[in-house]
Amino acid sequence: MGLPPVPFYDAARALLPYREQLHAALQRCLEHGTFVLGPEVQRFEQSLANYLAIPHAVGVSSGTDALLATFLALQTDHGAAAPLQPGDDVLTTPYSFIASATSVLRAGLRPVFADLAPGQFHPSAEEFERAWTPKTRAVLVVHLFGEPLDLAPIAALCEARGAVLVEDCAQSIGAQFADGTHVSTQGIAGCFSFFPAKNLGALGDGGAVVTRHDGLAAKLREKRQHGQAKRYQFETLGGNFRLDALQAAFLGVLLPHLPSWLADRRRRAHNYLTQLGDFAAKHPDRLQLPADAPGHAWNQFVVRSNQRDQLQEALKTAGIPTQIYYPSALHQQGALAAAQPPAHLPEAERACQHVLALPIAPGLTATEEQRVIDAVLAAW
Ligand SMILES: Cc1ncc(COP(=O)(O)O)c(C=O)c1O
Question: Which fold has domain 12-114+121-256?
Fold first, then answer.
């Protein structure tokens, strides 16, 4: 009998050590009976803001709603920059989860895609500059897979051209820039997801927007309650983007453990990089490893291969599940057709054909980790 498959991510296993604390949080919520927003959410918002060293965190219902609330709030008089106008262009990456761009479109703005920098998972400042349109008023960057982007050149471009910078940090909580500050703190706002498979996952959906700006934080709080400025006074269009108290209570239990999970992810990534390094150097057509960075949060460990499908099949046979993030780029998605994207963005399309994510999440045993490495080396 063969070995059982390695899990790609097993949330029940990863949360096993925290069950007692999570039960206590559930018990507390049952006792006070406040299930939407309220003190649990306020407490978690404060802990998150402290962790990220930023003044404001606004808990919302998902990473998608974090982005949507942000792009709605940026169209109000929030005081931190001139408001975006309906129909303005938001430059972004074509290589991300669908919500990065659909949230822009749903907020009445137009996502405009800049192709990836060659061999990278994100456009650089040059690609954004090339894709700039007369109506570009914002740039949305995505710290994909937990990789902290070097934002200085992109922030300088935004500053020079009068655009605001928004950070999609859904996959990158805990990632740090070269100066040690957290992703989410360089843009006008940073958006997080607490989907269970993220580095900090709830026991359901959840998200947050963080910002340095008092006025924008206030508008975000309005937007998550249908645009409510005062009780039953709705000044602008918003939605129900509220964070549940239960999820906030669970996240409050889990947040203090994030640094140790990040250390675990980094150690695992370095093991993969070390043990696969020689093979990748000799066979770049078969295996290209992701770039390392001290502040990388390694939500995903994504390799590239010119023979990706063969590699994926061989790993599957060895009981190693993998994922393709992403099989299609955003300019190829019907949901974004209204944005009139370009027909082709070759670097993004190439990435879609070559990428493969290996298991890296906490809970993987040392034996399972070694099986992943051995299976990659034996795949050819
Ligand atoms: C880059 C990115 N942005 C936004 C989201 C949306 O987050 P959520 O699933 O919490 O709505 C995700 C989630 O997968 C994501 O990966």
Answer: Aspartate Aminotransferase; domain 2 (3.40.640)
Averaged pLDDT of the chain: 97
Q: Which pTM does this prediction carry?
A: 0.98
Q: What is the 3-state secondary structure (H, E, C) of 195-216?
A: CCCCCCCCCCCCEEEEECCHHH
- Parallel/antiparallel/unpaired status of strands 56-60 and 355-358: unpaired
Interstrand relation of 355-358 and 228-230 (parallel, antiparallel or unpaired): unpaired
Pinpoint the residues of the chain covered by CATH 3.40.640.10: 12-114+121-256
Give percent above pLDDT 70 in the chain: 100
| 67 CA: nearest ligand 1 atom | 4
Residues with CB under 6 A from ligand 1: 62-64, 96-97, 99-100, 142, 168, 170-171, 193, 195, 205, 207
Nearest residue (by CA) to ligand 1, atom 10, is: 63
Nearest CA to ligand 1 atom 8: 63
DSSP state of 370: H
Question: In the structure, what pLDDT confidence band is assigned to residue 77 with cuts at 50, 70 and 90?
Answer: very high
Q: What is the mean pLDDT of residues 348-362?
A: 97
Q: If pLDDT is split at 50, 70 and 90, which confidence band does 1 have? A: low
Pocket test for ligand 1, best of 140, 195, 224, 324 (most atoms within 8 A of CB): 195
Helix (H, G, I), strand (E, B) or coil at 175: coil
